[in-house]
Amino acid sequence: MAILDAIDGFRVMEALLLLTVFTGLVGLLLRRSLFLKVMGMDVMGTGVIAFFVLVAARSGFRTPILDGTDAVLGGQGWADPIPQAVILTAVVIGLSIQALLLVAITRLASVDPSLDGSQLDQLGRD
Amino acid sequence: MSPLSLVSWTPSGSLLTIAWLLLPFLAAFLAALLPRLARLLILSVVATTLAMALAAWLGWLPSELLLLGPLGVRLQLDPLAAPLLLLAALVSAAVLLEGWGRDPDKPFLLLLLLLQGGIDSAIVASDLISIYVAQEVVGISTFLLLVRGNRAPQLWIGLRYLLLGNSVMLLYLLGAALVYREQSSFALDGLDQSSGIALALLLVALFTKAEVFISGLWLPRTNAVAPAAVSALISGGVVCAGLAPLLRIAAAVESVCPLFRWIGLASALLGLIFALAERRVARLLAWSTISQMGMVLLVPAAGGLYALAHGLAKAALFLVSERLPAVSLDGWSAQALPWRHWAPLLLASLSIAGAPPLLGFLAKEQLNMALAGPGGGLQAVAVLPGAIVFLSVGTAAVYARLWRLPCNAAKAEEGQPASPGALLLVAALLLLNLTPWALEAWRTLMDQGITQALLKSAGLVLAGAGLQRLWPRGADGFGLPDLEGFDDLLGGAVLVGAALMLLLGQ
Lengths: 126, 506
Known about the structure:
A: mainly alpha, elongated
């Protein structure tokens, strides 16, 4: 099992999460339906959020909350709370933007039920 | 530090800044409860923003605020922020004045407050996460302003804006995560040691927000569909929110300046060529915005004043153009305009073309001086002087199409009344010359030989007007490609991102 030991788990996770973001981006670019484009954006968002969580877990997995029994603060294995705290804002923003986009899409579905981006592009032309 | 720094590194200084950033959002809540107060609240928000811009320029307040420790929120109320704050406040004031006589449009006023709050925060934020949050607030309020008519084209344009904006902001977040992984901090100062990939992800998002190069191609259709007041806000205020972080990154990371110069040049040329081929007013103004934002990036250190002069003039042009009878330029030369529309149109467009004594002239001269100065790149890049002259003549040629309109005093009775917002902005273009900073710049100009500068700018403007006369009429769009479909926008942003990664990744 020498090969498995040589693989850095964090590197693999990182690559997989970047792949998730990339997949979402490809979906956003290549899908014709507006709804699927928004889904692609959501996949991208999921990848980015998970990437932040991974960055936070770099230094360890323990929840950075003292319960009174930990005598030493400098102990090992604490997760980094900063990226986790920060990404919470992005989760909320991402959710609200998605909600707004879906409301707008619902309205646009009455114009073009297929929600084809290139058809809807005619709307802004003149 | 000026002798007037009454409030130096004290809690009261930071308290004042936080109160000012919070005020628009509290005012928006209050305006939702008491709609009758909305206009007064906007006026107070505008007044405080103007005061903060002044304080930032004079160094009355601590220029850097660190809240919640070294990893927390970082705000910079420095001279870089001052012209952009001034611009955002004046444009909001103009848009407010524009609707003063009519029945108050309650949701619009509320959104205006939110937008102003977001823009203020985006201009002073100087850590990656605060910038992200402020950009998203600006993005959401702009989206809501865009879709307010509830008609299909407006919904589509708003949706396009938000989907594109949020997608690039996700790339930005990824870049921020990469920076944090390397630096263990979200501060902008650490960016010069972070990897090029992270920087590229941050920049592609900010280029899209600042309406630069092919990542800014969402602008023409957005301006064509949006009401004039919203267009004025987008080209005056919203653009500041994207520009300020770019200027801050340029100040923190010396090595991106050559890249900014090339992107700026490319953006300026792209916008100019499409503006020359454009026939509809709103789209012409939008293309010209893309071109002028490129000019801002040429020398980021002198960019603030340039953005101020451009934003004031462009917002005035949008506000006047709404009151004109035709949307196509072809029909314009046949119609005489009354004075009250003709004069602001002429003054604002002359300012963008760089005619003295308007603020645009001063901004252009400052840009030229900074280009010729150390690190300006005039020596480094051989084509730059020629390109600047070409861009100036081209810009004058674009706006010379507006100057062709005849003015008719006898028609004073007809048409719509004068636009109060545009008058305010044009007055600002003239009066801001009298501020101490502008006077100082004028004095420097005097020392370096103002006659030469005056002759040069007159020559450039006349050359532009002449070029416009010789321009082939009837050529429709010169067969330029249509790059504004939604897939083109996404592809353009990805293309810019990939190119930045290649350039910065080395």
